[in-house]
Write a structure and sequence with these properties.
With 124 residues, the chain is α+β, with helices and mostly antiparallel strands. Helix content is 21%, strand content 50%. The chain is globular, with a radius of gyration of 19 Å.
């Protein structure tokens, strides 16, 4: 009986540790729904206007633009903290020969601004 109780306690401890790892990974991810009000280029990937989930991994410095489970585009980015919250979401772009190239995102209601440092090939 003692052996069963010890085994049960060990299984419970492992479950708690695995929950801690998942929570830790979740804490390293910044996620925000973002409306692209116009089409933009992220590297060689054209992103049509629409609603997307933008994920930023603080550990790897990788930003992913996703539609459902599908990764539409990826880029290396950094997070800049500003003193005041932004009033609304904003796409920061520069004009290129292809069209508007995404260089950053401002997150409305937050102090964070994602600045793209390097484009990464998407997995399309």
């Amino acid at each position: 009986m003692k052996r069963v109780a010890l085994s049960l306690m060990a299984v419970c401890a492992l479950c708690l540790l695995s929950l801690g790892v998942r929570a830790d990974d979740h804490d390293k991810m910044l996620k925000e729904k973002f409306e692209f009000k116009s089409e933009v280029w992220i590297g060689d990937t054209k992103v049509e206007k629409g609603m997307y989930l933008v994920k930023y991994n603080t550990e790897t410095g990788t930003m992913k633009v996703m539609q459902g489970d599908k990764v539409i585009a990826k880029a290396k980015a950094t997070v800049m903290m500003n003193e005041k919250d932004f009033d609304s979401d904003a796409l920061l772009t520069k004009t290129t020969s292809k069209g508007e190239q995404l260089i950053g995102l401002r997150l409305g209601g937050q102090k964070e601004e994602l600045t793209i440092t390097e484009n990464v090939a998407s997995s399309n």
